[in-house]
Each structure stands twice: as C-alpha cells, then as structure tokens.
Amino acid sequence: MNLFEISIFFVGLFAIGLVFFHYANAEVWIPDNEFGGYFDSNGVYTVIGAVKNTQNVSIVPTITINIKDNEKIISNSYTLSIVDTLKDIPFKIKIPQIESKNAILEKPDVNFVLAKHNSTNIQVIYGSTLVKHADGHTSGVIINNDTVSAYGVKVYAVIYGKDGKFLDTGKNVETITEMKPGEKREFTMYPDPLLASKVSYYSCFALGEDPTLTISVEKGGKRVDFTYLTAAYLDAAKFDDSQNSLSITARNPWPQTSYVNFMIPIQNDNQKFSVYLDGKSAAALQSKDPDGYWHVAFNLPPQSTSSVLISGFVEQGQSLLSAGNFRNYLLVIIPAIAVIVSIIIWKKKTD
Questions:
Q1: Sign of CA dihedral 148, 152, 158, 162
Q2: Distance separating the N- and C-terminal Cα atoms of the chain
Q3: Which three-class secondary structure state does DSSP give residue 312?
Q4: How far apart are CA 88 and CA 28, in angstroms?
Q5: Which helix (H) or strand (E) holds 7?
Q6: Distance (Å, rounded) from C-alpha 257 to C-alpha 303?
Q7: List of residues 6+ apart from 16 with CB closer than 8 A
Q8: In whole angstroms, what is the distance from residue 22 CA to residue 15 CA?
Q9: What whole-number distance in Å separates Cα of residue 234 and Cα of residue 264?
Q10: By C-alpha distance, which of 60, 46, 51 is closest to 92?
Q11: CB of 249 within 8 A of CB of 270?
C-alpha cells in the first residue's frame, strides 16, 4: 500500500468516525437546567421542562416523571407531540396527587419512537405581532403554512426569568380546534401568577397538542383512571356509585374561557352524558372516536373555580335494558315475539 492509498484509508476512517460520532451523540433528552417542579398559585404540583431532539429525524417522545412524595413514589408517563429534528417541545404537567412540600423530583426518563411524518407546518410569526406584556403574559400570531388543515393546535414556549434562567413553560389558553391552510390565528399564554413578575422573555416556541392527563377514582370498589385534556387544573375527583356520576373541582386561573375534554370508555352506544357547573346545567358536546371512547367537552368560565358533575355513566356490564333503554329493548323484542306467534299460528293451520 503506497502513501496515497494509506492517506485515503485514514481519511475514510476519519469520515466514518465523524458519522458514528454524530449518531452516538445524537440524543433525545431534557437538560437539567430546563427541568423542575414547583407548587403553583393553586397549590398544585407542577412539572416543567423541554425535550430536545438532536436526532436527524422527527420523533414522538414519551417522558416518565418520578416523584418521591413522603414514603411513596409517584410515577407517570406522558406522550408529547411530534418533535422535528433539532427542535424542542416544552411541557407543563400538573400532578395534583403530590401532597408533601418536600417532594423530591427525580431525573426524568425519556423514550421515543420515530415519527412517520414531520410535525404540521404551523409557524409563529415573529416581529411586531409577538409581544410580551407588562403583566408577564405574551401574545402573538401563528399561521398554517401547510396544505392541509391542522386540528387541536397548541402553542408552547419556554419562559425565562430576569436572571436569564429557566423559569416556567407556557401554552396558549385558546381552544384552536381547526386551522385551515393559510389561516392565521392569535394566541396568548401566561406564566403562573406566582412567577409573573419575574418573567423576562419567551423562547423556543413550538406547536403541538396537549399531553393527555389522567385522574383516578374508586368506582365499584375498583380504581378507574379517566383520561382528559384541559388547560385548567382538575382535582378532588370522586365517583358516586349510587348516582353513576363523577364530581371534580376544576380551576381555571386564566382570563379566558378554558375547556375540558373527558375521554370515557364506551359501554353502550346510547349513553347520554350531562354536565353541571356549580349545580347548573352546562352546555357540553358529546362525540365518540374510532378508539372506543366518548368525548365529553365543556367550557370553564375565566378565572373561576367550579364544582363539576358529569352524569350518565352506567355500571360495567350493565345491560341496555337496565341502563334505561327500555324503548330500544321493545323495538327488538316485540317484532321477535310477533314472528314467533305468526309461526305458531301458521303451524296450527297447516296441521
């Protein structure tokens, strides 16, 4: 092997080494200086952070948060939105079951799967429309540059304090159910009121969807987890087996109307849910998805604390008849009886 061939060989090894160095150090992680927890203005334990993606492909991350609360360990996993390559996704998660003021937030675990496509091409418009206001909140405009509509859009950002350190994360308080191609929408986001006076600037804006949250109750002597989406805070959940209803305390600290979207496993196709806020009937939208869940969505007034009651549940394994669907039962059984009687009469005539 001559000198030229040797040089080519080592140059090739160096290039391969660079490639493998890139892949070996390409990570998905939450920096220690962008992760933390605090009790918010409502006394709810809040975990904040930002997942960074240095892979060369888009991913869907799942974070596992572990908290030592006195003698017990509380562990919850949350799947976030798609994160494009070299992008971040901030998150803010409420964990109301934390009780101790001395709770210890442990280092989070981050796993991910490769996304089948990039995130929706929605962008924050930078410039004069992106404003940080004197009370610490920010407002701006987003635009859908994609060729298809986007649904359930949320805007996230990392909030930095006046010392330049990671302070909080924010997400817009508006409900954006759909954005058509080329459409622009205004958004606003707020820090927790306890931190408002410390806000310096917002950064790392990202678009995505809310992580689904869970709330646990005892139903029929068993623990049942209900999944929901909201910009508000829910706690004090209790299920009344005698009334087949779920009661919750919902706190909306924002100056805009906020929403709650409960996902309830379908037990029969004729369930009808009703929602009450502070004892008064509230408007609610009910729909079902292909995964076998009812969606029960309703609004919460601005800067409010509401006692919420959701009725219309049925017991597991309860029949349509006992669930009150007697009319449906008759529509099936009466024609069947008529057919049987007709056959008996015909048989007697032919004998």
A1: positive
A2: 106
A3: coil
A4: 10
A5: helix 3-25
A6: 8
A7: none
A8: 11
A9: 16
A10: 46
A11: no
- Write the DSSP symbol of residue 9: H
Write down the pLDDT at residue 338: 58
CA distance 225 to 264: 9
| H helical segments located in the chain | 3-25, 326-350
Q: And the tokens for 153? A: 């859009």
Token output for 22: 């890139």
Does the CA dihedral 29-34-37-41 come out positive or negative?
negative
Give the residues of the chain that fall short of pLDDT 50.
2-26, 318-332
Triad 97, 300, 244: Cα angle to 5°: 65
Q: What is the pLDDT of residue 321?
A: 42
Q: Hey, what are 282's tokens?
A: 């509230």
Report the C-alpha gap between 194 and 159 in whole angstroms: 13
- pLDDT tens digits for range 217-235: 888 888 887 888 777 778 8
d(CA 309, CA 65): 29
Paired with 95 in beta bridges are: none
Amino acid at 208: G
How far apart, in whole angstroms, are the C-alpha atoms of residue 144 and residue 101? 42
In the prediction, which pLDDT does 315 show? Answer: 64
List the structure tokens of 93.
């998660």
* Beta-bridge mates of residue 91: 49
Q: Is 297 helix (H, G, I), strand (E, B) or coil?
A: strand
φ, ψ dihedrals at 273, nearest 5°: -95, 145
β-pairing verdict for 213-219 and 222-230: antiparallel
pTM (predicted TM-score)? 0.59
Question: Which pair of structure tokens corresponds to residue 244?
Answer: 């087949």
